[in-house]
Design brief:
disordered C terminus, PaaD, hydrolase, 162 residues, Thiol Ester Dehydrase, Chain A, alpha+beta, acyl-CoA hydrolase activity, globular, six-stranded antiparallel sheet
């Protein structure tokens, strides 16, 4: 998502505009993602792509990126993807497989993609890769929609649900 994104449309918000508006509302409140230097690169209905630089303070005793930081990047990407329709959604479960180490100064990218969305639940797959396209981790998240909206007060017709 670019810094020059359009302001919140007042009427006729399409799904892409809604996803962009939702991330603009969520990211400023997401102190965890900000403190880890995560950047939202792209968002759309049911998808998100974030990046993060592996800093020296993220390294474990093997001089590789601690798995918790990789998990956090994948989880943040998951959060932006599953909230992209402006319906408050949380994780109900997730798992991760680490397939390769990430090193200092790697730029990791987590790409989240919705696989299913039925009723209040969804399943999302997230791939974390480095700047060379090497897969670092595979994450699967299960979502659950709770009460409320990320951006309160938008008419239901603008959110793609009535």
């Amino acid at each position: 998502m670019s810094e020059t994104a359009l302001p919140f449309p007042s009427t006729g918000m399409d799904p892409q505009a809604l996803a962009e508006a939702t991330v603009r509302a969520m990211y400023p409140r997401d102190n965890a993602s900000q403190s880890l230097g995560m950047k939202v690169l792209e968002v759309g209905p049911g998808r998100a792509r974030l990046s993060m630089l592996v800093r020296s303070d993220m390294l474990n005793g093997h001089a590789t990126c601690h798995g918790g930081f990789i998990f956090a990047l994948a989880d943040s990407s998951f959060a932006f993807a599953c909230n992209s329709r402006n319906l408050n959604t949380v994780a109900s479960g997730c798992s991760i497989d680490y397939v390769a180490p990430a090193l200092r100064d790697d730029v990791l990218t987590a790409e989240a993609q919705e696989r299913t969305l039925t009723g209040r639940t969804g399943v999302y797959d997230i791939t974390v890769s480095n700047q060379d396209g090497k897969v670092i981790a595979l994450f699967r998240g299960k979502s659950y929609r709770i009460k409320g909206e990320v951006i309160a007060g938008l008419p239901a017709a603008q959110q793609g649900h009535a």
